[in-house]
Write a structure and sequence with these properties.
Helices cover 35% and strands 23% of the residues. With 199 residues, it is α+β, with helices and mostly antiparallel strands. It is globular.
């Protein structure tokens, strides 16, 4: 699937992830499986093809939201989200990832250097309004104590529309995962959005 943005042809995250993960081994399905055994086999089939399933669902979410979100003008944001998605499921602290280290590593992958901690990321980034935020921008929050004013958590936006903004981040309890800004926990701690990719 190819989509044009301002005259540029780029492969969407959706299609690129399907190309990358669509090669998962589907040949493990037993031949001539009996109809009554289909449901018993399903959990094993799902587990063997979990990377493809996760990639498809995640990229579908992003693709469906791109049309109502700020435009993508280059491949940079797609590359960033591809790399960020590849870390899904890692535990907090694995590979040295806390929230800000994870974000910094994702940006380093696309050749952009950003500060190490969330407070500095908030200060150094270009402020962007909620209506103009785009996939790949940062959303920054207070820490677990919402009564403290300083930044304590950072994440990368993966999709947005008029109602919802989803982001990928390193959660202490869930590891690298995707959450939504509509939840009360994050709404109460939202500090703002920052842009480091200047399209």
């Amino acid at each position: 699937m190819v989509v044009k943005f301002r005259g540029l042809k780029i492969h969407t995250l959706h299609s690129r992830l399907l190309i990358r993960y669509g090669k998962t081994n589907l040949e493990s399905r037993p031949k001539n499986i009996r109809l009554e055994d289909q449901y018993a086999f399903l959990p094993n089939l799902i587990m063997k093809n979990l990377p493809f399933i996760c990639a498809f669902l995640f990229s579908s979410l992003c693709y469906n939201s791109f049309s109502e979100c700020s435009y993508l003008e280059s491949q940079t944001r797609v590359n960033l989200l591809e790399y960020a998605h590849s870390k899904l499921g890692l535990k907090y602290g694995e590979q040295g990832y806390d929230c800000s280290a994870y974000v910094r590593d994702c940006y380093r992958h696309i050749g952009i250097r950003i500060p190490r901690d969330s407070k500095s990321q908030l200060i150094a980034g270009k402020a962007v309004s909620r209506k103009n935020v785009a996939p790949g921008d940062l959303v920054i929050f207070k820490g677990s104590n919402k009564n403290k004013s300083g930044a304590g958590h950072t994440a990368i936006i993966v999709s947005c529309d008029k109602e919802h903004i989803s982001f990928i981040h390193a959660s202490v309890s869930k590891g690298i995962c995707i959450d939504n800004l509509k939840t009360t926990y994050y709404q109460e701690r939202l500090l703002g959005f920052r842009q480091y990719i200047l399209d």
